[in-house]
C-alpha cells in the first residue's frame, strides 16, 4: 500500500511537493538543505533518526593532515573548506541563533620517535610550500605551551590554523537554520529506496519531490549504485575531566590518534579506521589502542573519566574524494570519508548550486559523481 | 511528617511489623533474608534500587587467591564458603526455580615473567599445604588446554576447584527464593537512618521491625558508626564474543586482572582497586590497565566487543574481614570487600542464626562486629 504524504505546510504557505527531498539529516544534508532554502527552494530533510558519523566525529578541521601525500584534489577541497569554515560558522550562528561550537585552539602534531619526527619534518615542509602557517617546536618548547605532553615527545608541529568544531552543536545549529529558512526536518523518516520522482520510506509511504538530494552518508551506497560508498568504521572515546578544562588547550595528534578538547573539560579521543561493513560495536582492541597511543604523549588522559565509547561509519569512496553534484537526475552529496565535518559548509554550497541547475566550478570537478560511471564494465 | 507503612501482608497471613527489616537487596541481604524466612521469620528486604557491587562483580569463587598471605581468618571463612557454594547454589536453584549461574570451569592463574612465576610457585605450595587441588603447568601444557594464551606465558596454575557464578543471576534467584519463602522485597526503598525499632526511609516514612539487619554494602558505614566500612572502587569491563563462547573456558587470572567467562560468550574483565570514596565513574586509566594486563596473556580479548564499562564499590573494613553478627541490637552483614559473592551463602546462614538469637560458631568469631568497638577511643 502506498500512502502519499500530504504536502509540506510550514507556515501555511506551502503547497504541493517540496522542491527537494534531502535524504540524510547529518551536517552534509542539513548544510545543503540550508543553502538550498536560502536560494528559495522548498526543502524537506528526511532524517532516519539514527545519529550518523557526525555524532561520533571529533570535528577536527585539519585540511592537510587528513589528505595523504598525492591526494591533491582532496587537499584542494579541504583547504578551500578550512579557509571558509569560520565564515560558515559565523553565518550559521547568525542564522540559527545557536553556537556551532567552533574552537580556535590550534593543533599540535607530535612525534614519539625518530621515524615520526622525520614524518613531521616532511609535513612541515609541505605546509610551508603551501604557504600555510606551521611552527616546528623542539620538545622543551612544546611542553612549555602544552605542559601535559610526555617528556618522551621528540618533536612537535604547532599548526595554529587547524581548529575544531563540535559536530553535535554544528548539527543542532544547522537544523535550526534549516527551519528558520523555511525548510522542514522530518525525524524518524528512513528512506528505503529512491524513486524517479521522490523516495519510498521504510514505512511504505512515498514522498514526492522535485529533486532528491542523496546525503545519506555510509548508507548512500545501499540507495544508489551510481556512487560506490562503503562504511569505514571509526571508534572514539568521549572523555571528561572532572577538574574542568585545561589538560590540553590544543588538539593533540599522533600518527594514530588525536585528542580534541571541547570548551567544557570534555575530550574526544579518536579514531580507529576499520573495514568491517555496517558494524558499529565498540571493541576492546579499538579502545585499548586509542588509549595506548594517546597516553604515550599525554599521560594525563588516563586520569579522565570515560563517558562514552562510540563507533561511527565514515562514507568512503574508492578514491577518498566525496561525490558532490548531479548525476541521472539525482544530486549527490556523500562519500566524505574522514572530512565530512570540514567539508560540510563547502558541500552545502555546491549541492545547493547543483540543485539550482548551475554548473559547478572547475575546482569541484574531482568530486563529480559521474567519475564512477566512467569505469568500464 | 512520619508515615507508618502498613504491615506486610503477603499471602494474607501477615499481621503487624516484620520480624526483620533487611537493609540492602544485594546477595548478602537476600541470602540472609532467605535463610531467616526459612527459619520462620517474617522478613522485609528494603532494596534501594541501585544495583550494588554485585551488579559489577565478576563472581569468582577463589578462596585462596583472594586472601593475602597472613589473612588466615579470612582464608578460613573463604574456604568454608567455597566448599559450601555448590550446595548453596543447588538448594537455591531448587527453592527459586531459577539458575544461579554457577559455572564449574576452573581457573588458570598465569605468570608473565620470572617474578610472577615465583609467586605462582608460592601459591602452588600454599594450596598444597592446605590440601587444595592445584596443578602446575608448563606453558606448552597450559596452551594446550587454553589455546588463547599468549606464547609469552611462563607458568600457569590450574585450579580446577575455583569456579565462578554470575552475580546477576544469583541475585535474581535469591530474590525469587525470598519471595517463595514468604518474604517481601520492596524495591526503591532507600534507608536514610536506623531507628531503635526500625528504619527511616529516604521518603521520610518509617518502617518498624523486630530487628534490623544491616546489609547495605559500601553504604553501611553511613548508617552505622559501629562498623567502619569504606568503599573500594572496582572497575570492570563486560565483553562479548560475537562468535559465541570458547575463547577461554577457564577463568584466567594474572596478578592484576582476571577474565571470567560466562556460558554465552560474554566475559567479565576486572577489576581495579581504587580508594576514591563514593566515585563510580569509569576512567580511561582503569579501562586501559585492565585491557593491557589481560591482553598480555590473552591477546584475543582485543577482538571482543565492549558492552559495558562499570564501576562498583566494595565494602571494606580496616582488617579486610566482614562484619557478621549482632551488636547493640543490630545484626550486621557487611564489609565483605572482594569476597561478597563467595561469602553470600555462608553469611546468610550466620546472619539468620544471629537473627534467631543463636551464638555464632567459634570459627565466625573473627567476623564479630564487636571487634571494632574494642578499639580504644
Verbal overview:
- The structure is a homodimer of 377-residue chains.
- The N terminus of chain A is likely disordered.
- In chain A, the strands form four sheets. An eight-stranded mixed beta sheet of chain A has the order 5-6-4-14-15-16-13-17. A six-stranded mixed beta sheet of chain A has the order 8-2-1-12-19-18, covered by helices on one side.
- The longest helix of chain A has 25 residues.
- By secondary structure, chain A is α/β, with parallel strands linked by helices.
- In chain A, helix 1 runs parallel beside helix 6.
- In chain A, 29% of the residues lie in helices and 24% in strands.
- In chain A, a hairpin with a 2-residue loop joins strand 9 and strand 10.
- The interface between A and B is medium-sized, with 21 and 22 residues.
Rough outline of chain A: globular
Strand-residue proportion of chain A? 15-25%
Please report the distance between the alpha carbons of the first and last residues of chain A: 36 Å
Order of helices and strands of chain A: EHEHHEEHEHEEHEEEEEHEEEEHEEEH
Amino acid at each position: 500500500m502506498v500512502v502519499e504524504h500530504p504536502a509540506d505546510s510550514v507556515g501555511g504557505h506551502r503547497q504541493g511537493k517540496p522542491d527537494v527531498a534531502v535524504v540524510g539529516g547529518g551536517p552534509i544534508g542539513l548544510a545543503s538543505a540550508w543553502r538550498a532554502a536560502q536560494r528559495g527552494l522548498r526543502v524537506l530533510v528526511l532524517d532516519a533518526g539514527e545519529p550518523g558519523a557526525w555524532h561520533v566525529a571529533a570535528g577536527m578541521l585539519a585540511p592537510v593532515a587528513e589528505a595523504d601525500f598525492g591526494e591533491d584534489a582532496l587537499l584542494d577541497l579541504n583547504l578551500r573548506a578550512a579557509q571558509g569554515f569560520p565564515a560558515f560558522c559565523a553565518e550559521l550562528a547568525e542564522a540559527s541563533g545557536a553556537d556551532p561550537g567552533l574552537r580556535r585552539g590550534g593543533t599540535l602534531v607530535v612525534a614519539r620517535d625518530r621515524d615520526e619526527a622525520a614524518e613531521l619534518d616532511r609535513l612541515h615542509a609541505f605546509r610551508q610550500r603551501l604557504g600555510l602557517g606551521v611552527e616546528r617546536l623542539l620538545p622543551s618548547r612544546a611542553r612549555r605551551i602544552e605542559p601535559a605532553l610526555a617528556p618522551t615527545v621528540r618533536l612537535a608541529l604547532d599548526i595554529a590554523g587547524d581548529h575544531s568544531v563540535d559536530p553535535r552543536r554544528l548539527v543542532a545549529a544547522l537544523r535550526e537554520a534549516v527551519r528558520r529558512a523555511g525548510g522542514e526536518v522530518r525525524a524518524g523518516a528512513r528512506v528505503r529506496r529512491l524513486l524517479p520522482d521522490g523516495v519510498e520510506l521504510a514505512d511504505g509511504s512515498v514522498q514526492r519531490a522535485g529533486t532528491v538530494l542523496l546525503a545519506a552518508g555510509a548508507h548512500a551506497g545501499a540507495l544508489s549504485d551510481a556512487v560506490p560508498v562503503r562504511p569505514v568504521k571509526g571508534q572514539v572515546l568521549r572523555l571528561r575531566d572532572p577538574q574542568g578544562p585545561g589538560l590540553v588547550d590544543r588538539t593533540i595528534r599522533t600518527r594514530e590518534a588525536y585528542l580534541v578538547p571541547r570548551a567544557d573539560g570534555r575530550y574526544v579521543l579518536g579514531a580507529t579506521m576499520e573495514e568491517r561493513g555496517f558494524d558499529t560495536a565498540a571493541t576492546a582492541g579499538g579502545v585499548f589502542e586509542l588509549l595506548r597511543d594517546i597516553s604515550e604523549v599525554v599521560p594525563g588522559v588516563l586520569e579522565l573519566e570515560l563517558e562514552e565509547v562510540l563507533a561511527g561509519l565514515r562514507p568512503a569512496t574508492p578514491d577518498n574524494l566525496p561525490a558532490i553534484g548531479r548525476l541521472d537526475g539525482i544530486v549527490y552529496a556523500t562519500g566524505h570519508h574522514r572530512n565530512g565535518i570540514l567539508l560540510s559548509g563547502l558541500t552545502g554550497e555546491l549541492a545547493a548550486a547543483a540543485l539550482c541547475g548551475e554548473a559547478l566550478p572547475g575546482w569541484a570537478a574531482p568530486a563529480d559523481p559521474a567519475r564512477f560511471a566512467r569505469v568500464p564494465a
